[in-house]
Model the fold of this input.
Amino acid sequence: MRLSILAAALSYASAASAAINWTLQKATNPTSDQSDAYTKIQAAMQKAVARYSRYSDASKTIRVYYSPGVPTAEANYNGDLRFGSDRSYMTERTAMHEIAHTLGVGQTAAFDQKCSANNWPTATPLLRSWDGASAKINCGGGHFWPYGLNYETEWSETNGNRHVQLVDAMLADGM
Done:
């Protein structure tokens, strides 16, 4: 009995402490362009991280940058996430897509191997619960679909929630 209570407490403490933490790196004396970008990026990241917090227990520290030379946005597994100057990409959808890269989508050998083998024992059944028995996770170019949020046209509240749940299941599968 005591062991099961201890296990439950440890499990709760572990899940409760998991979080995506992020910081927006800002210039000391920002230009008006930088200030505008910081406002939009901050709003996008706050929404994206809140959604990840609701539907995932993923843990990551992310450093966010405004980098005007980046055409859209980009991120890598080491936790760097950059938004370019195109304001149409400073959205919750883009932030969520890029957070997925920091968690391993398209960035790790495990992701590539699981995609090649279509070996997603947790993620595939989840996807099929939404899209039917023949649904499968497709991968290419460091991305996945459906629910990879690769384009703004894929955005909806439901797709945003499913994106996070699918990334979380991929993490459970060892991505």
